């Protein structure tokens, strides 16, 4: 009995001095006082002596109150927001802001997602030190003593309020902000695109560094097996997760547009990348709301991306821009759509993941269907645009140029593997058909000037001129010259941008025109120009002149350039 009284007296002296001088000794004194209190409470002699029990109980309550103040002060003093530079230092080199690969502010500079995912597999993220390691055991012991005294709600409340506020400050310093759909709608595209690129980094940093770090110190300060600890972690992170995901929700719900597709896929990709970690971090029952919010955002991003595909296809087919391509070259819509399709294949692995997760279809087949539909919508629109030309030959040249551009782009991209050789061959034949139609429309009339139908049954040897008079031959040459000059003047202003296609089309015309012209000159030249020179000559051009002038066709020259 005397020993317990002595223990109580010594413990009281330590407790009255407070925990600041020697926290470990203070905690030891509380343990001694709690032991003495149990002894007095369990002893019949002292049970009836209220003074002793009241004294030890009040002393214990005073000690716990001081502990609560100490816990709050210690936690507050060592809980500071993490500066962005410190967070960046915790990232792998490839994801730090100084690295070129981390700059995703422009939707067009998307990395190849297959290589990106492989590089991330080997990346190491080192969560920052949120509370100094030497302080954690003290906080743990303080928390345990308070919980033993039945003050667990107070200690959890202090912890939640302190850590939640600090976590929010860390996120805000990084650049995270709560934004609504209306806020997003008001932004210019360039500013919004930059914010999306930043948000992708923020989500990765928040999950892999800040939330992971919070879970770690929560488990170290409290017993991680306690269900209340899960609730404590949930309360610390809940509002911060909501603030972080609010921007993603706003983007997913905002007005759809074609240029948003690739940033939607970027956002979907980061959410899929972090999904397993989110499920682990927020795997408890207390965190189910945050886990579901993250999964819902991933699903919404996927749905919005798929709806954007449909929107884009319809927009391409119905595009009514009156941008006139006067020279029949590749239309801006064609190059825009094809570049769009090329970007789709930069996101192939992300798209395949999206299709697997939410459509339960063969991802390659689905990507092929989307690509086919978009290119078909483009061809339908180009057919409509081609009808704007008054010259039917230019209509055919325009379609030839644009379909050729589509085919060439597909052949040089991954789209070829999905669309297949049959698709390529069919569309190459379509290009050839338009080239043949151009040739027929442009050159059939002028070739008639060089065609002579033999009369009678004696054959050409009997009558070399086939009944054509000198005047008729001169008229044929005159008509040919006028028509060829008109064609040269008009079609040298037209454009075939692909050099290979341009040369093959010139050659196809030359193979028909030059032999017929040589034959006509050989047959009728002496009849009209025998001995004549200069302006008196009906034969204005030699075959070589025609060949040289044909090489000026489809160069997109202005009228002034032709005269020079």
Description of the molecule:
The chain is mainly alpha-helical and 564 residues long. Among the domains are: 136 residues, no CATH class; 93 residues, no CATH class. It is built from 23 helices and no strands. Helix 4 runs parallel beside helix 8, helix 8 runs parallel beside helix 11 and helix 11 runs parallel beside helix 14. The longest helix is centred in the C-terminal third of the chain and has 34 residues. The radius of gyration is 41 Å and the shape is rod-shaped. About 4% of the residues have low confidence. Component of the exocyst complex. One of its GO terms (biological process) is exocytosis. InterPro entries: Cullin_repeat-like_dom_sf, Exo70, Exo70_C.
**Count of DSSP helices?**
23
Overall pLDDT, averaged? 83
Query: Which spans have pLDDT < 50 for at least 5 consecutive residues?
Result: 99-111, 454-463
What is the β-strand count?
A: 0
What does the radius of gyration come to?
41 Å
Structural class: mainly alpha
Strand content: under 5%
State the end-to-end distance: 122 Å
Task: Summarize the entry for a quick read.
Residues 198-552 form the Exocyst complex subunit Exo70 C-terminal domain. Component of the exocyst complex. With 564 residues, the chain is an all-alpha fold.
């Amino acid at each position: 009995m005397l020993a317990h009284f002595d223990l109580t007296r010594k413990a009281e002296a330590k407790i009255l001095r407070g925990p600041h001088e020697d926290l470990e000794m203070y905690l030891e004194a509380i343990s001694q006082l709690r032991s003495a209190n149990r002894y007095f409470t369990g002893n019949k002699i002292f049970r009836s002596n209220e003074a002793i029990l009241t004294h030890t109980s009040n002393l214990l309550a005073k000690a716990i109150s001081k502990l609560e103040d100490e816990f709050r002060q210690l936690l507050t003093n060592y809980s500071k927001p993490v500066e962005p530079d410190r967070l960046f230092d915790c990232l792998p080199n490839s994801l730090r802001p100084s690295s070129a690969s981390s700059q995703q502010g422009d939707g067009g500079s998307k990395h190849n997602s297959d290589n990106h995912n492989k590089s991330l597999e080997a990346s190491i993220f080192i969560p920052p030190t949120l509370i100094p390691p030497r302080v954690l055991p003290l906080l743990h012991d303080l928390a345990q003593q308070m919980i033993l005294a039945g003050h667990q709600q107070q200690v959890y409340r202090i912890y939640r309020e302190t850590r939640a506020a600090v976590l929010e400050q860390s996120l805000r310093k990084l650049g995270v902000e709560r934004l609504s759909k209306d806020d997003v709608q008001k932004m210019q595209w360039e500013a919004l695109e930059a914010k999306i690129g930043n948000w992708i980094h923020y989500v990765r940093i928040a999950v892999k560094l800040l939330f992971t770090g919070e879970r770690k110190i929560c488990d170290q300060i409290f017993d991680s097996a306690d269900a209340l600890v899960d609730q404590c972690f949930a309360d610390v992170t809940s509002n911060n997760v909501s603030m972080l995901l609010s921007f993603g929700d706003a983007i997913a719900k905002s007005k759809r547009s074609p240029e948003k597709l690739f940033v939607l896929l970027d956002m979907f990709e980061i959410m899929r990348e972090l999904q397993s970690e989110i499920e682990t971090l927020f795997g408890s029952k207390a965190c189910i709301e945050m886990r579901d919010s993250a999964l819902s955002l991933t699903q919404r991003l996927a749905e919005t991306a798929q709806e954007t595909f449909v929107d884009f296809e319809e927009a391409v087919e119905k595009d009514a821009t009156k941008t006139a391509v006067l020279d029949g070259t590749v239309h801006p819509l064609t190059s825009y759509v094809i570049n769009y399709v090329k970007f789709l294949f930069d996101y192939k692995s992300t798209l395949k993941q999206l299709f697997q997760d939410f459509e339960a279809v063969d991802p390659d087949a689905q990507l092929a269907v989307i690509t086919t539909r978009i290119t078909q919508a483009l061809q339908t629109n180009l057919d409509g645009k081609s009808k704007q030309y008054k010259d039917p030959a230019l209509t055919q040249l325009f379609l030839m140029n644009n379909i050729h551009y589509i085919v060439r782009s597909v052949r040089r991209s991954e789209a070829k593997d999905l669309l297949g050789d049959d698709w390529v061959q069919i569309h190459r034949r379509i290009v050839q058909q338009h080239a043949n139609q151009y040739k027929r429309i442009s050159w059939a009339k002028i070739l008639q000037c060089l065609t002579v139908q033999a009369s009678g049954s004696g054959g050409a040897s009997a009558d070399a001129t086939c009944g054509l008079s000198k005047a008729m031959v001169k008229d044929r040459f005159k008509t040919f010259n006028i028509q060829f000059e008109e064609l040269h003047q008009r079609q040298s202003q037209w454009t075939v941008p692909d050099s290979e296609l341009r040369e093959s089309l010139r050659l196809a015309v030359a193979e028909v025109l030059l032999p017929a012209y040589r034959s006509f000159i050989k047959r009728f030249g002496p009849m009209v120009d025998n001995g004549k020179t200069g302006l008196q000559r009906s034969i204005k051009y030699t075959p070589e002149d025609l060949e040289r002038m044909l090489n000026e066709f489809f160069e997109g020259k202005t009228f002034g350039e032709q005269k020079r």
